[in-house]
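Supplementary Text 2. Reproducibility record for the structural model of the 129-residue chain.

All settings were left at their defaults, and a single model was retained for analysis rather than an ensemble. We include the record here because the model underlies the residue-level annotations in Supplementary Table 4.
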Amino acid sequence: MARSAQEQRNLDLVLAMFREVLVPLDSAAVDRFIAADYIQHSPLAAPGRDALKAFLDEIRPSHPDAQHDLKRAFVDGDHVVLHYRVRRWRDDPGMMVCDIFRVADGLIVEHWDVIQDIAPAGPNPNPPW
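Retained model, structure tokens:
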């Protein structure tokens, strides 16, 4: 199924935010991508754009070597889903993250996430990506 032009713009916006905000944990870039009235649904984060900036500022010093490995991205209308692995430090098995973003008027206006720690060993030989 082909993407519409608007879906491509939504996907491009979220991928740019991933590269410029989430990967470097850069709070200074947040306003270029996130709406002022941003709605946060994650149970791990306080609501609002300023809370996102504060969260990034808090975790950046404690995770200077964090790596974000994007595995896949999907777009459906105004929703974009990213599935990626986060390793917070060297030798961290990491966690898998599924972020869901809603886009309106060229900005991210809403966010949900699902996060799963990666078990170092288990009965399933398939990786979670």
